[in-house]
Amino acid sequence: MQQSRFVPYLLIAPATLFLTLLFVVPLVQTIALAFSDGGAPSLGNVRKMAGDLNFGLSIRNTFLLVLTVIPLQLGLALAMSMMLQKISHGRDLVLWIWSIPLGISDLAAGLVWLSILQDRGYLNSLLFAAGIIEGPTNWLSYEHPISLFVGVVLAESWRATAIVLVILVAGLQLIPAEYAEAAEIFGAKPWTRFRKITLPLLKPSIQSALILRTVLAFEVFAVVYALSGRNYPVIVGEAYAWQQVNQNNGVAAAYAMLVMAISLVATLVYLRVLRVRPETQP
Amino acid sequence: MVQFRTFLASAALAALATSAAQAQEIIFLSTQLRPIEEATKVRQIILKGAPGTVTFVVEEPSPFQTRMDAETQAGKRTISMVGALHGELQPLVGSQGLEPVDDLATKARERGVPDGMMALGKLGSDKQMYIPWMQATYIMAAKKEALQYLPAGADVNALTYAQLRDWAKAIQDKTGKRALGFPAGPKGLMARFLEGYLYPSYTGGVVSTFRSASAETMWGEFKALWTHVNPNSTSYDFMQEPLMAGDVMIAFDHVARLKDALNAAPGDFVTFPAPAGPKGRGFMPVVVGLGIAPGAPNRAGAAAAIEHLLKPETQVIMAKELGFFPVVKAELPADLPGGIKLLAEGVAKTQDAKDALASLLPVGLGAKGGEFNKVYMDTFQRIVLRNEPVREVLETQAKALTAIMSETKAPCWAPDKASQGACPVN
Q: N or C: which end of chain B has fewer CB within 10 A?
């Protein structure tokens, strides 16, 4: 009896140790780096970050991207998962094809879309062949911020909708069919059934999917970098530039802290807003 | 069985031989010549005649610094010698990653390394911290078909910024293409263009003249020129790629970043110096240096390898195979490959231009080199790409520049006039 009390702790020890070593230690070091200058505590790095040319712009861009991409992905994933429900033959095949982007790295996805959208890319070739444009059009230059933004949104949605989809599909499978059947007997239309039954019961899955996606979306970098280079500054891109190009890891650490703070706040907001009371769960 | 025993014996012998070789192995870590074809040439051709076993290992600049610092902190050296750009060797002085090589300096001078370049190798200290190894610079390259649009009376080898603008404008008017390109992408070397070419040409300085009236005129004119520049320039890292793809016809870049295009079709291109402004034709020589790590496992071997790399015959082979030019006195042979020959011509025309105005790489900035570049790139972005008012931008960016200069206490370097203490932003 005495022994078994320690077993759970023993079992979680490796994971705890692993996370402490590879997460907590670097985190503490990054905090120290961000809030010190030459070994002494200082807000110099934070001030430098806040005074930086791209500071406001990168925050605006990141939020704009998150606020566009996340609702779009959630809507798409909901629609796709509902459609999957109705398919009886070949459902697995469709799901498998839809989740292909999951297996592709950010940077590779960015490069795929670059090859489509750049001057001599597939889109331009297609439009040119169809006689819609007269020559290569520069969709991704700093002179066309809107098409650049649309390009980034397209690539980001293509790449990361699948993860939301997979979580929602798993959640849908947990909802007992009886609820919908009962509602149908009482004459509820499909839209009402979706709004009053599916959506509330799917809330825990939506919450997980949103937290995961939002945190990752605030960290968006590789896709933007591949498509736009410096033309669309985002927060993590600025952290990268301060580390690699400007060679000031203090300011880079301050940017990293900023991303972490934003992600934490977003997570707390989701946990609060999408709270699911135990008694409302199936 | 006999066969097996022979095998064992020879395996043991081989193991012995390997460990003996490892004892005198000289690990040579370089940030330069990283592409596999270039590294292979270094291993198979350039280091072939070197005494001892030199193992050439390449690393990107950032991991290079990390590895050097890690070895210093661990107190265990595996690397004997390093080869890197002047600006990449600078931070190693502060982090104890280099030891003085004064013993090799006399020989290097005898071989004809210019005094100015040897002085750069002191990295702001009073000891020789690295020996110059090879050099390069930035030039311009253009497709021959672009020459027909040159404005009347313009000599491609003695262009002014106004003529470059008219040339690019003429091409745009005739072909509808913005055919002039600059490497202003995330990994491009646009900052060097601003510091070593544009600023010196217009203002005769880099730091002290940062917000001068002539700088204001310069930005105004450069902004006008930029209307004829390919807007993809903010994504170009290496100009050889858009040149080869035909996206641009005229480009400015480091010779090593133009090489592939020129080698691929030497007959299609001409090379020429960057344009001149009112104060001359600014240009920036780039120096790659060789240093020895403190506590190197094989210092004598590293010294001998440096000695080998500085031989005139080795330096000529490097020019021929790799497109980096000699720092010692050496005659380049007439049978250079087409692309390299074009590069050599461009470099010679740049250095020998009557109005040439050499601008050194930033000296004495230490780890602030990146932020120094950022001041120039931010100024460029704000004025040229974001259309902010020139005077206002110069005033605010001058504050950032002043902060860097007073923090590092770096005195002015050419072409700015020598200063007592930190270089002032007048």
A: N
Distances (CA, A) of B412 to A39, B364, B417: 29, 9, 6
Percent of chain A scoring above 90 in pLDDT: 53
Question: What's the pLDDT tens digit per position in B10-54?
Answer: 544 444 444 444 457 899 999 999 888 889 999 999 998 888 899
Together in a domain, B290 and B190: no
Task: Please tell me which of the candidates A140, A141, A248 has its beta carbon nearest to residue B370.
Answer: A248
Q: Tell me the C-alpha distance between B150 and B247, whole Å.
A: 18
Identify whether B397 is part of a domain. Answer: yes
Residues B396 and B300 in one domain: no
ipTM higher than threshold 0.85: no
Closest Cβ–Cβ partner in B231, B370, B382 for A245 = B370
CATH number at residue B186: 3.40.190.10
Contact status, residue B418 vs residue B426, Cβ threshold 8 Å: no
Please check whether residues B88 and B187 belong to one and the same domain.
Answer: no
**Residues A119-126: contacts with CB within 8 Å, 24+ apart?**
A119/B232, A119/B247, A120/B245, A120/B247
Number of domains chain B is built from: 2
The answer to whether the CB atoms of B378 and A228 lie below 8 A apart is no
Closest to A170 in 3D by CA, of A202, A198, A195: A202
Task: Tell how strand B26-30 and strand B54-58 pair up.
Answer: parallel
Interface probe, candidates A53, A113, A143, A242, chain B, greatest B C-beta count within 10 A: A53
User: B187 in a domain, yes or no?
Assistant: yes
Estimate to the nearest angstrom the gap between the alpha carbon of B354 and the chain centroid. 23
Quick one: which H or E segment has residue B135?
Answer: strand B131-136
Range of the domain at B130: 23-136+286-333
Tell me if chain A has a CB within 8 Å of the CB of B122: no
Residues B50 and B151 in one domain: no
Q: Show the domains of chain A with their CATH numbers.
A: 55-280 (1.10.3720.10)
Sort out which chain A residues have CB atoms less than 8 A from B374's CB and list them: 245-246
Interface probe with B: pick from A247, A248, A249, A251, most Cβ of B within 10 Å: A247
Is pLDDT of B5 > 60? no
B116 touches chain A (CB under 8 A): no
Question: pTM of this prediction?
Answer: 0.82
**Tokens coding B298:** 């094989």
